[in-house]
Amino acid sequence: MESGALFKLEVSILKDEVTITLDTSGAGLHKRGYRVGQGGAPLKETMAAALVLLTSWHPDRPFYDPVCGSGTIPIEAAWIGRNIAPGLRRDFVCETWDWMSANIWKEARSEAEAAANYEQPLDIVGTDIDHRMIEISKQNALKAGLEDVIEFKQMQVADFTTEKEYGVIVANPPYGERLEDEGSVRELYREMRAVYRDMPTWSVYVLTSYEMFEEVYAKRATKKRKLYNGYLRTDLYQYWGPRPPRRN
Ligand SMILES: C[S@@+](CC[C@H](N)C(=O)[O-])C[C@H]1O[C@@H](n2cnc3c(N)ncnc32)[C@H](O)[C@@H]1O
């Protein structure tokens, strides 16, 4: 062991049992290494990945985030779609420990590289009303190695139209937690419904802490899933569209 090296330990005590854990990661596992910029309320990367995995999305279906902020959900979807290991572009503190063989990491990284499918075609779009967020999304996607993969553009929810079918929408809109924001958030949810009503083959997933969401969206969810966004209790309102027809 390197003399003078500092190690981060966590000690937890439950009744008469003490557990000592050695931190092998360093920065939290949600930090994937691609976030160069963020907006006011970014989702943790791990949470964004979980949302994608909770949907029926498959890489041959269109994927759309209409309120993409710094692009976390589309970026995680692209990595999932191409089977890119989320730790591939970051370091872990134990990589610096001289008593851990460097080969272990080399092998793990080449295994992950071999499993990735960089040729997988994807149709992933992220839009946001705020052009600054679109710039940040593009920078983050560049850092994530996805600059030509995801289409980011400035657009408000109400202006979206599409000819595509069987797509999947995953949205993390503002929640309207401050009383003065409630009116604009309700308006946004109504706009979503007005647009998505005309897209009957799409599946829609909306994460919000706003408890009246279904009333304002004027449609009962197929399923609701309780999730904690940090300490905040939210629900993932799921509106399942039909399955795409099987291809021969
Ligand atoms: C909670 S943030 C999304 C954060 C994002 N998931 C991330 O990880 O960075 C909500 C986003 O909705 C956008 N937004 C608010 N009203 C909108 C509208 N009418 N149309 C499109 N985007 C809107 C905001 O600009 C903001 O970036």
Summarize the structure.
With 248 residues, the protein is an alpha/beta fold. The chain is built from 6 helices and 9 strands; from the N terminus they run ββαβααβαββαβαββ. The protein has one domain: 3-Layer(aba) Sandwich (Rossmann fold), CATH 3.40.50.150.
Q: Layout of SSEs?
A:
Blueprint: E1 9-14, E2 17-22, H1 45-53, E3 63-65, H2 72-81, H3 102-115, E4 124-128, H4 131-143, E5 150-154, E6 168-171, H5 182-196, E7 203-208, H6 213-217, E8 223-229, E9 232-239
Parallel strand pairs: 3-4, 3-6, 4-5, 6-7
Antiparallel strand pairs: 1-2, 7-9, 8-9
If you had to describe this structure to a student in words, what would you say it looks like?
- The chain is of the alpha/beta class and 248 residues long.
- It has 6 helices and 9 strands.
- It has helices at 45-53, 72-81, 102-115, 131-143, 182-196, 213-217, and strands at residues 9-14, 17-22, 63-65, 124-128, 150-154, 168-171, 203-208, 223-229, 232-239.
- The strands form 2 sheets. A 7-stranded mixed beta sheet has the order 5-4-3-6-7-9-8, with helices on one face.
- Strand 8 (223-229) and strand 9 form a beta hairpin.
- The N and C termini lie far apart (58 Å).
- The relative contact order is 0.15.
- Bound molecules: S-adenosylmethionine.
- S-adenosylmethionine binds next to helix 2.
- S-adenosylmethionine binds at residues 38-39, 41-43, 66-67, 69-70, 72-73, 128-130, 133, 156-157, 172-174, 188.
